[in-house]
Amino acid sequence: MIQDAWRKIKGASPVGEETRGVRPENLVWMFGTARTGSSWLSAIMGEIGGYSRWHEPLVGHLFGNLYYVRAGHRSEDEHFILGARYRELWLETVRRFVLDSAAARFPEVAGGRYLIIKEPQGSMGAPLLMEALPESRMILLVRDPRDVVASNLDAHKKGTWTADLMKKGGREKPPSLAERRPDDFVKGQARRYVRDVGNAKLAYDAHKGFKVLVRYEDLRADTLGTMKRIYSALQMPVDESELARSVEKNSWENIPEEEKGEGKFHRKAKPGGWREDLTPEQAEIVEGVAGPLLRELYPVRSTA
Amino acid sequence: MTPRFKRAWRRAVTRGKSLRSLAQRPSRAGEPCGVRPENIVWIFGTGRSGSTWLGSMMESLDGCAMWNEPLIGNLFGNFHYFRVGGRKSGRQYILGEPYKETWLGPMRDLVLGGAAARFPELIGGGYLVIKEPNGSIGSPLLMEALPESRMIFLIRDPRDVVASSMDARSEGSWLSERSEAQRHTSKPGRNPNAYARTRANSYVQQIEKTRQAYRAHGGHKVLVRYEDLRADTLGTMKRIYSALQMPVDESELARSVEKNSWENIPEEEKGEGKKRRKAKPGGWREDLTSRQIEIVEDITAPLLSEFYPMATTRDSL
Fold first, then answer.
1. Are A187 and A289 a contacting pair, CB within 8 Å?
2. Which of B28, B69, B92 to probe the A interface (max A CBs under 10 A)?
3. Most CB within 10 Å of its CB: which of B10, B26, B109, B219?
């Protein structure tokens, strides 16, 4: 009722006409968490004809961080802008945020193309986004939390690619916990994994539209086969020879050697590499924090 | 209309069909009818600066309602100014500068839609005071999205703000339970000096952003010092209404000032650990240690000298 009334107040067009031609069902969300291979997967998909890629809009983080973390205690408060009583109303704004922004950035999508939205760092807000855009498609990309934490541990050491990234943004990277107190850093990253992947999994379970769960390890073991499964599950058309070319072009083997290795964005791409990277204590910390998700997503994998 | 009656009426309206019927009223000159943006009065600044008191005095007047801390400013400002780093100018980031028109519109709708849904009694007219001290970080964005609206920049001596916050977050105080729920690590009881530093830094962030919004705002606006409001409440309130060019019945205003005065708050609701603590400008001299005073003055020095040029500092004590 509130939503209908607001539409009449502001004189907005009915849903479907306010989107400047971007069809919500042509949005493909990619959730999970950072360092799960989402850049790789979205690069493969984004290079195929008929597909565009939106690289980390962070819209999930924008709404999810306030809703779940900073003001979680106020969800029942009528005055809170994201309060439960007015959920329909603000979810419509979330929807407009996404559709208007997509239309402005990717006008070609209005013609019927698909838009891959790589949003691992906005996964905290995945339940809100999927509720606001129930017609859209969803990929839940997961990776063994120990490998995710090991990758982050490497990325946040001194002089690595994350420092270069900050320098590009005009900032110096402050001394990282990864250097000073690595075990605490590991615990923090494991918690972040639980928050991101946990919320993305909640959204995945609730989503009634097309969706697919992808393990990074399967993508590494059989990239083309897994890609075909993704397009099939999401019921999206793809030219198989073009897909094969994109898989080949974006393969680990095709990345120049000097762009790979410790401290670099492309590090080792080796499932199970955590055994070499983490101390037994650190592996135990991750298993302790992310245990339930680890068992759910990787029921047959060994522990430390 | 008392605030309690207003709330009851609002609930009755939103539960029935009245919101829909109000929404269907013909609009003036083709404008969508809702809460008028020019009838929105923002209160920005920082927490523990008397915004509840000021908002209550305004809310008590006929034809006015108060939206109590929606945190819209916090939603956008915290993210945009402190979390995204160098991505602001990029093409990908949802609040990217090159695409401002695509997100200022939904931001405006979020405010106006949220206001119309919560305060249907204002759809035909009346003022909505949005008390948003803890959303001040986003005030530049909100004032840009709603340039017709009015703005109050409420400021208080940072040392009193820090002293009041320390009391509020102390063990057993009115905000301590929330701190537990939010897993605040910088509780004043654990490390008071670290807490003072954190709170002084957040004061600077919030006041600097409010000042930025205030300077840029081309509409009606007023700067109010808490200390002036305490010293001459009625006179300062008249100044606020005059600066904002809002009509007010002076006898009604005087009654509201009297009703919401410190002296009219029951004694058992005042004191240490309570929301209404001491309302005493300069009380920081009794509350903070000399080291804490030093910390707060060092961090807030430019603001202190700008807004309180005559203020006593530790050096002159």
1. yes
2. B92
3. B109
Q: How confident is residue B62, by pLDDT bands cut at 50, 70 and 90?
A: very high
- Gap between the Cα atoms of A124 and A59, Å rounded: 10
Which has the minimum average pLDDT: A66-70, A294-298, B5-9, B312-316?
Answer: B5-9
* pLDDT greater than 80 at residue A304: no
Which residue from B293, B134, B304 is spatially nearest to B225, judged by alpha carbons? B304
Tell me whether strands B150-155 and B64-68 are parallel, antiparallel or unpaired.
unpaired
User: Are A62 and B94 within 8 A, CB to CB?
Assistant: yes
Q: Which of A5-9, B1-5, B301-305 bottoms out in mean pLDDT, i.e. has the lowest?
A: A5-9
The CATH number for A191's domain is 3.40.50.300
CA distances B136 to A58, A266, B55, B71, Å, are 22, 40, 15, 9
| Beta strand residue intervals within chain A, DSSP E | 27-31, 51-55, 114-118, 137-142, 211-215
Instruction: Please state the pTM of the whole predicted model.
Output: 0.87
CB of A296 closer than 8 Å to CB of A194: no
Size of interface A-B (CB pairs under 8 A): 134
Counted domains in chain A:
1
Contact A8 B84 (CB under 8 A): no
Q: Which domain holds residue A9?
A: 2-303
The end-to-end CA distance of chain A, in Å, is 53
pLDDT score of B174: 65
The sign of the dihedral angle between the CA atoms of B304, B307, B312, B316 is positive
Residues A143, A268: contact at Cβ < 8 Å? Answer: no
Q: Where are the beta strands (DSSP E) in chain B?
A: 40-44, 64-68, 127-131, 150-155, 221-225
Q: What is the pLDDT of residues A129-172, one digit of tens each?
A: 999 999 999 999 999 999 999 999 988 888 887 777 777 777 77
* CA closest to B19 among chain A residues: A5
Collapsed DSSP state (helix, strand, coil) of residue A41: helix
Residue A43 contacts B, CB cutoff 8 Å: no
Q: Is the pLDDT of residue B279 over 50?
A: yes
